[in-house]
Amino acid sequence: MYTDNLDSQKSGGLRFLQSMHIDPPLLLALLLLTTCGLGILYSAGNQNIDLIIRQSTRLALAFGVMILMAQIPPQNFKLWAPWIFLLGIILLALVLILGDVGKGAQRWLDFGFVRFQPSEMMKLAAPMMVAWYFADKALPPSFKHIIVAIILVIIPTMLIAKQPDLGTSLLIAAAGCFVIYFAGLKWKLIAGFAVLMGALTPLVWHFMHAYQKQRVLTFINPESDPLGAGYHIIQSKIAIGSGGLYGKGWLNGTQSHLDFLPERSTDFIFAVFSEEFGFMGVILLLSIYFFIVIRGLVIAASAQDSFGRLLAGSLSLTFLVYLFVNVGMVSGLLPVVGVPLPLVSYGGTSMVTLMAGFGMLMSINSHRRLLRK
Amino acid sequence: MFKVRAIVASFVSIVLISMLLIRLFQLQIIEHAHFDTLSDNNRVRLMSSPPNRGLIYDRQGMVLAENRPTFSLDITPEEVDDIDLTLEALGKIISIRETDIKRFKKALKRHKPFRGVSLRTNLSENEVAVLAVNRQRFPGVDFKTKLTRYYPLGSSAVHVLGYVSRINEKELQNVDSSQYSGSSPIGKVGIERYYEKELHGKVGFKKVEVNVQGRVLRVLEETKPVPGKDLILSIDARLQAIAEEAMGDHSGALVVIEPDTGEVLAMVSMPVYDPNLFVHGISRKAYRALQQSGERPQFNRALSGQYPPGSIMKPFIGLGGLDSGLVGKHEEVFCEGYFMLPNEERRYRDWKKTGHLDTTMKKALAESCDVYFYQLAYRMGIDRIFGFLDRFGFGKKMSIDTTGERSGLLPSREWKKKVKKTIWYPGETVITGIGQGYMLATPLQMASATATLSLHGVRQQPHLLRAIRDNQSGETQAVKTLEQKPVVIKSKRQWKQIINGMKEVVHGVTGTARSIGYDLTYKMAGKTGTAQVFGIAQDAEYDEENLAKKLRDHALFTAFAPIKKPKIAVSVIVENGGSGGRVAAPIVKKVIDYYIHSNYGKNVH
Predict the structure, then answer these.
(1) Optimal mutation site among A178, A258, A270, interface B, most CBs of chain B within 10 A
(2) Whole-angstrom Cα distance, residue B370 to residue B319?
(3) Residue B564 DSSP symbol
(4) How high is the ipTM of this complex?
(5) Residue of B81, B80, B113, B107 whose CA lies nearest to B214
(6) Residues B67 and B183 in one domain
(7) Contact across the interface for A258 and B28, Cβ inside 8 Å
(8) Is residue B14 a part of any domain in this protein?
(9) pLDDT tens column, A314-359
(10) Is residue A4 part of a domain?
């Protein structure tokens, strides 16, 4: 456990990490989580070594990005924030105009040598932008500033929702809102917004695509369509529920290994874990996530300037929302929106973005301490 | 300020994570049992493996019912590169009709690619051989073997064996349906039906794990099927064939019993049909042909046919008369060609218009004098006749171990009051004396009563099962003969007196069956009968005048041999055969000749 009085008895390794701007507790938790993730993926992918190699490569890349980001002082993020945001908006607009068709929605930009998803970039750019906007203003912000901040959040959210990618647009909206929250949005206004959102629900419903509506309907009553859209949720609940207290054991999940569980390497990987490791495993896994979130909030609380505080707080809470939406969807609490289990689901893009975010957190943390010394 | 916000955020994190944990607790702990069942239902399938049906042998070890492999050709689509090419190549070496291909292509769309789809059934041995040689040319093409019932003797002994066929809804409700999963056949009539439990065995089960497409991945649990038990029947297949041949084209029935044991050596009902037709499901056309045939081949006349026994009742009535002292052994009754009841006008005619004149019991039996037995029956009265014949088993089922047995009819005062709602008339007693009137008997009853007579009253329950063999333990268990309450009379010599009369039927110069007696190498006791026809409708009332004109009489003969040490008792009825002596007796002679000369000494006991 990392505490301040550890300073006096630091080992050489810790000193090295510090010089690299790496936060040891966060690194440890992330390593633990991604290692568990590889273990689950090995099972979910029917012990396909190729899959593990590809995911490990991505992880290595992601950790590399994290270390790289940690080296950049937070002042630079603040400096670049408006430009990154602007670039992101332009790319999102481009996606809408000439984006590739993938999975029934336009999300990708194909540069020939690499396929790029601007919405991923926006996951970091949006909170950076809002944090930048509030950074030099008096806090708590005035009503006018809040309105501007909301507009800054709504623009990318709408662009991504239009792709359509409901999951990501919600995550970006959440990330932006968290910045506003940490900036000091009045509690009364928060309550007011909550009521407004409730009132707007029918309107949102009206603008949703047919497949999105279907997802919500299926969520409300999965048994209405047990072989169609409801199948995912039913099979996922069976996998989780049949895991029981201790689970069926690693590699022994019948729901996953006999192909009853769809998308088990990606969005539904949590069901594989729950089936094989049971409720005990679930408690352990969620504890790791919880630790990461709390560590992020601690970093935010001890950050020295507004930009760092707001960005760190937003990134930490967004990570929690990731987890909540994925597990909620897999366990039938929330409708099926395509949000992967952070750092565990198979797939590269979101992993790199997340680790870049953690790199920023570490940068905010370590550069503060360097300043203090 | 910011710290408060961070603390609130931490608190919200705890709340959100707790919500997840509560949800997961609900799924994994509270509803675990429910989801566990659903998970097992997803992956575990129960497959049944039908047991091999027990075989049926005759007393000499000849196979009467066996299981033969029938081959069908299956194609597993996922293992075949080009289905059309394969079909074309297969068509060159075996016969594949257009309809086969059509059916196959249709089934192909419905099946999962790893499931075999049947292309042909009932491959000939030749086709199987050709395919076996060319096997490596056709990956994904496979034979499937299934054991199906086969009756190698065809229609011979069909009324003993019965047949199996696919189980129907109604039968499924009456049996443990799990024992018949996997479309097993079930015995429909005869031995196949009566000993269904023994023959069927126990179905085996395989608990298998399947994936989402239903492909079997592994066997979790297996219970092997227990094969059915083999039955060894008392039937002698060669004797049965001789008897069937002797019946020729006649409709009718013949039953052969071994008196000492009650074992049925042969049981013939003509005409016959081929039980193999039913095994694969009889075609509608063939079934209609069977049903509409006026001869009703599916009707087992030996057990279900109830005929007026006619004169073959005379030895039994005679024995009753001697036993009750109502007629003396040497007493002469004068026969002038008819009999009249006191104070009645009606004449009960003898078959011989001129009459038999002075007639003793011996002569009455030998020449089948009707008047003698009219007189005797009148003296005895219906109550005494009923009481005496009842002891031989007439009017009751003999509880033979197969299906379709009927009880016949032994009329009594009570019966008439109950069924016909009128009193018994003395005239009805008179004609009962010659086995006419209401009385009906099955060929089995006639043969059994003859066997009892041959052993001076010892009665063995007639049965078809001789031994039962358990294929698991290899043990063979013999079926015990079931001795029934014997017929006891006051003077044992009276048996001999009756049997002497029956000997005269065959060996005497005036015997009604003397034509078969002159070249016999052994002594036979018999009795001819000519029954006025009821057809096989049991409830038709006896109407002498009308029916007799329409149809020729049924010819009957019952006999046993050798007289000193009876080994075989035979009864035959030839429908519309005419004279018992001329038509029925030669049939019996052929059967007994064959048995005495070639068979009974060599029996496997």
Answers:
(1) A258
(2) 15
(3) S
(4) 0.90
(5) B113
(6) yes
(7) no
(8) no
(9) 999 999 999 999 999 999 888 877 788 999 999 767 889 999 999 9
(10) no
| pLDDT at position A44 | 92
Among B13, B29, B35, select the one facing A279 at the smallest CB separation.
B29
Report CA dihedral (A245, A251, A255, A258) to the nearest 10 degrees.
-160
Does B17 contact A286 at a Cβ distance shorter than 8 Å? yes
In a domain, B218, yes or no: no
Residues B140 and B262 occupy one common structural domain: no
- Domain total of chain B: 2
Q: Is the pLDDT of residue B605 over 50?
A: no
To the nearest whole Å, the CA of B38 is away from the closest chain A CA by 7
Q: How confident is the model at residue A369 (pLDDT cuts 50, 70, 90)?
A: low
Q: Is A254 on the interface with B (CB under 8 A)?
A: yes
% of chain A residues with pLDDT over 90: 50
Q: Across all residues in chain B, what is the average pLDDT?
A: 87
Residue B448 belongs to a domain = yes
Instruction: Report which secondary-structure segment, H or E, holds B204.
Output: strand B204-210
Chain A CB contacts of B10 below 8 Å: 294, 297
pLDDT of residue B463: 95
CA distance A27 to A290: 14
Q: How confident is the model at residue B26 (pLDDT cuts 50, 70, 90)?
A: very high
Give residue-wise pLDDT tens across range A74-130: 999 999 999 999 999 998 888 887 755 544 456 666 665 556 788 888 999 999 999
Residue B7 lies in a domain: no
A249 plus A263 within the same structural domain = yes
> B223: distance to nearest CA of chain A, Å?
23
**Taking 90 as the threshold, does the pLDDT of residue B71 lie above it?**
no
Check B5 against A244: CB less than 8 A apart.
no
DSSP string, B104-154: HHHHHHHS-TTS-EEEEEEE-HHHHHHHHHTGGGSTTEEEEEEEEEE-TTT
Residue B238 has pLDDT above 90, yes or no: yes
CB B42 within 8 A of CB B208: no
Token pair belonging to A284? 């352990």
* Two structure tokens written together for B91: 């068509």
Between residues B114 and A244, which one has the greater pLDDT? A244
Strand partners, B186: B165
pLDDT at A244: 92
Inter-chain touch B20–A324, beta carbons under 8 Å: yes
Higher pLDDT, B9 or B113: B9
Nearest CA-CA distance, residue A186 and chain B, Å: 11
B10 annotated active-site: no
Are A217 and A362 found together in one domain? yes
> Which of chain B's residues have a Cβ under 8 Å away from the Cβ of A300?
2, 6
CB contact under 8 A, A238 and B35: yes
Cα(first)–Cα(last) distance of chain A, in Å? 22
DSSP helix/strand/coil, B287: helix
pLDDT at B549: 37
Answer yes or no: do A156 and A260 share one domain: no
Partner residue opposite B2 with nearest CB, options A282, A301, A324: A301
* Cα–Cα distance, A269 to A291 (Å, whole number): 21
